Amino acid sequence: MGKSDSSTRYGTVTRFLHWGMALLILWQFLSAAARYFFEDTAIEAFFWPTHKPLGVLLLVLMVARLLWAVTHLKQRPPSVNLLAKLGHVLLYLVVIAVPVLALLRQYGSGRAFEVFGIPIFSGFEGEKIRWMLDLGSDWHGELGWALLVLILGHMFMAWRHRKTDQDVMPRMWK
Ligand code: HEM
Ligand code: HEM
Asked: Which pLDDT score, from 0 to 100, does residue 1 have?
């Protein structure tokens, strides 16, 4: 199997990103759910500390994946229909928007922020940046849950296509 994509199948780079990120995103929703349903319990204490670092890692991976996709657009398998194409574009946009909104809020709080020991913001003195805090608080969690719905829809459509002569699973899996 080639590293690159072809008109009939996705290559190893795309598959590695797709399935690797699917696992990381599953974990990301476990930590979000732990916070939502099990606040102040051992379950939250176990899952929640990974939420911010893994969220930042997902943003980096998704930007890399976007660059990989746009530079190989011409040699990828064609979408089965317009809805599939729009759905995939939407997934890209939302997986980028969700962590960006959280990072804006993080920056606006004025606190220093680091992940995996790498400094991201050094923090600042003085007033917090209100619009950044509000934008993150109003939209990060909401859009995050909307992403979960989109992903479930995506999985459902992949499963439904298996039953037709437009099975798209082999191009991403076999
Ligand atoms: C793809 C990446 C991410 C996804 C899918 C995601 C998803 C979510 C979801 C669904 C919630 C809602 C939990 C609730 O309703 O209580 C949430 C909350 C939260 N997330 Fe994320 N997140 C991501 C990245 C990040 C990043 C990078 C940060 C920090 C820089 C972050 C910080 C937070 C915080 C502080 C909360 C609790 C406050 C709130 O509900 O807004 N997240 N996240
Ligand atoms: C178990 C879960 C999943 C299954 C069974 C699945 C299945 C598939 C299949 C069969 C394709 C090829 C579709 C085609 O070319 O028309 C595909 C593509 C795609 N999937 Fe998934 N998927 C899953 C999880 C996810 C998750 C969590 C995301 C989140 C971003 C995602 C995002 C995408 C995107 C953007 C594409 C287009 C190809 C690309 O640019 O990587 N998938 N998926």
From this structure: 58
Residue 41 · residue 110 · CB < 8 Å: no
| Residue 4 included in any domain | no
Q: List the structure tokens of 82.
A: 């317009």
Sign of CA dihedral 75, 155, 37, 45: negative
Mutate to test the pocket of ligand 2, among 67, 79, 88 (most ligand atoms within 8 A of CB): 88
Interval between CA 19 and ligand 2 midpoint (Å): 8
pTM comes to: 0.95
Q: Residue 75 in contact with residue 6, Cβ under 8 Å?
A: yes
pLDDT at 30 over 80: yes
Cα 129 to averaged position of ligand 2 atoms, centre (Å): 36
5 inside domain? no
Continuous H helices in 38-167: 42-47, 51-71, 82-108, 130-162
8-17 pLDDT tens trace: 999 999 999 9
**161 belongs to a structural domain:** yes
